[in-house]
Design goal:
The chain is of the alpha+beta class. It has a single domain, classed as Nuclear Transport Factor 2, Chain: A, CATH 3.10.450.50. It is 22% helix and 44% strand. Strands 1, 2, 3, 4, 5, 6, 7 and 8 form an eight-stranded mixed beta sheet that branches. It is globular, with a radius of gyration of 17 Å.
Length: 156
């Protein structure tokens, strides 16, 4: 049976992982400072990105994701192993991303696993190491909107 501390740790870690996806989807780059440790290592190379620290990633993501109107990190429930003040998690993710393409939107879907090493800090759990593992990536054909469907709001 889990102790109340382990239950609280797991909930905090799950929330941290979910907030990471939401921050990226919303383009709230400065929010990543509250997700990662200052010396974190973030490795996006499995999906064609870069490897770097938080500052480098905050500079990289806005440009790398600028070709997409919207993204949606659909995070699975992470498998978490906690050992004192260190935790390891593996989180599946299905990530549809809508490409900027006028009236014929195209969607790229990515499937991956995030491998996270987290540490307990005075400010709560933070991700110290994040690494992507690729499962699939596919550009889906365009699909025209139905006549009664409003155009996507690109300001969101």
């Amino acid at each position: 049976m889990m102790s109340s501390q382990e239950v609280a740790d797991r909930i905090e870690i799950q929330d941290l992982i979910a907030r990471y996806g939401r921050l990226v989807d919303r383009g709230e780059w400065d929010g990543l400072d509250g997700i990662f440790t200052p010396d974190a290592s973030i490795d996006y190379t499995a999906m064609g990105g870069i490897r770097g620290g938080v500052g480098e990633i905050k500079e990289y993501l806005p440009d790398a994701l600028s070709v997409f109107v919207r993204t949606q990190h659909m995070m699975g429930v992470p498998v978490i192993e906690i050992d004192g003040d260190v935790a390891r998690a593996e989180t599946s993710c299905h990530n549809p991303m809508v490409l900027r393409d006028g009236d014929d939107p195209k969607v790229m879907v990515c499937g991956l696993w995030y491998h996270e090493t987290l540490v307990r800090t005075p400010d709560g759990w933070r991700i110290k190491d994040l690494r992507e593992e690729r499962c699939y990536q596919k550009l889906l054909p365009g699909a025209r909107r139905a006549p009664d469907q409003p155009a996507p709001d690109s300001s969101n």
